Amino acid sequence: MGCSVSCSNSASCSRQIVHSDDDKIKDAKIIFVVGGPGSGKGTQCEKVVAKYGYTHLSSGDLLRAEVASGSERGKTLQAIMQKGELVPLDTVLDMIKDAMIAKADVSKGFLIDGYPREVKQGEEFEKKIGAPCLLLYIDAKGETMVKRLMKRGETSGRADDNEETIKKRLDLYYKATEPVIAFYSSRGIVRKVRLVPLVIGYCHCLNPQEVGGTLIGENGLVVMAGAE
Ligand SMILES: Nc1nc2c(ncn2[C@@H]2O[C@H](COP(=O)(O)OP(=O)(O)OP(=O)(O)O)[C@@H](O)[C@H]2O)c(=O)[nH]1
Ligand SMILES: Nc1ccn([C@H]2C[C@H](O)[C@@H](COP(=O)(O)OP(=O)(O)O)O2)c(=O)n1
């Protein structure tokens, strides 16, 4: 695409540097959004998008789109997701990377929702894409998550919003995903999100240094509108 800076004439330049797709996202601002099933990751991401214009990429939605396409790969994924298990790491990572590249030119930053699900997923992401500047940890009680997902299941049409699979997803979250939070805490980039009822005067915000918002609360706690 471009020519090296030492070359004054692109037509005669024999050593053209072709910017790979990877280059498009190598300096991207990346925020991981982690929380249990039904904790409200998607809901909070929409608020951040509305306020700050980040690009929201839900790994679960990307996987469901592949299932909906009816592809062979989608059929394999559906079987895994219906059981509440994790899909192969490379599959979800490739999908996220492709989606990031597709939006790279217009994106101010990426909210990667529902990823990483396990420490290994985070490590591979960093090897293939880059490091996150922040991890938003959406905390919610187990019983709250179950209640919400059972309610959502009445209309969502999601094959995994049933009692048996919800239990498995929750177990897997505690076993595999909570260690992710500890892993990134040691780097000092975790911001725990506490959901409070929407009251005038509260706002949903990230770190003021990150996005110019107002940080409310102590110890880097992020307060966003939500409720039990
Ligand atoms: N009462 C209440 N419900 C909420 C809140 N946030 C989200 N919900 C509902 O809880 C359900 C789950 O919210 P999502 O935003 O889809 O949660 P998620 O963590 O993205 O869930 P997955 O898509 O399963 O990963 C939805 O039906 C939401 O409408 C909240 O603060 N209070
Ligand atoms: N990074 C990811 C994201 C989702 N998955 C699989 C496993 C999850 O149960 C399903 C649905 O993910 P989604 O984030 O939409 O939903 P939950 O947080 O599980 O409620 O997809 C995965 O294996 N790896």
TrEMBL record:
AMP binds at residues 59, 64, 85-87, 114-117, 121, 158, 169. It is an enzyme of class 2 (transferase). GO terms for biological process: ADP biosynthetic process; AMP metabolic process; ATP metabolic process; nucleoside triphosphate biosynthetic process. Its main location: cytoplasm. Coiled coil: none annotated. Residues 151-161 are annotated as: LID. GO terms for cellular component: cytoplasm. Keywords: ATP-binding, Cytoplasm, Kinase, Nucleotide-binding, Transferase. Residues 58-87 are annotated as: NMPbind. Its EC number is 2.7.4.3, 2.7.4.6. One of its GO terms (molecular function) is AMP kinase activity. CDD domains: ADK. The keyword Nucleotide-binding applies. The keyword Nucleotide-binding applies. ATP binds at residues 38-43, 152, 197. It is found in: Cytoplasm. Catalyzes the reversible transfer of the terminal phosphate group between ATP and AMP. Also displays broad nucleoside diphosphate kinase activity. Plays an important role in cellular energy homeostasis and in adenine nucleotide metabolism. Also catalyzes at a very low rate the synthesis of thiamine triphosphate (ThTP) from thiamine diphosphate (ThDP) and ADP. Belongs to the adenylate kinase family. AK1 subfamily. Monomer. This is Adenylate kinase isoenzyme 1. It comes from Hucho hucho (huchen). The lineage of its organism: Eukaryota, Metazoa, Chordata, Craniata, Vertebrata.
